[in-house]
Amino acid sequence: MTIELIRRRTLSDGRVEVFRPLKNADGYYVLADRAVDPQHTRAANQFYVKDLAAVAARLRRGGVSLRMRGDISGQPNLISASEIEIEETAPAPASARPSEAEDDPFAAFSEWASEADERAYAGL
Q1: Domain enclosing residue 22, as ranges
Q2: Which pTM value belongs to this model?
């Protein structure tokens, strides 16, 4: 399952700016909870989450904001959970994915195999 979090905003000139989650220097998503402190924009009142699925789960509960950056303005903002769209896409069907043989990184190393290896590993 692929998760995408987006906020779309129509600008005065008609263009649509798309905001996407912004990670901090340590690779964490930054969230803030207004219930903890009205000054939720201060770093001391924010919390950090590594996993995007966990961020989406927290946004579904509501009451938080997520730090996001606009693709036109480049401006980072704390965006309220109610303004964020959570889009989930299912993984490609098995028939569209590469077979195990195609996906095996060692498949090209047949020169490493020997008859002794085949006999030793036959019972596994």
Answers
A1: 2-89
A2: 0.68
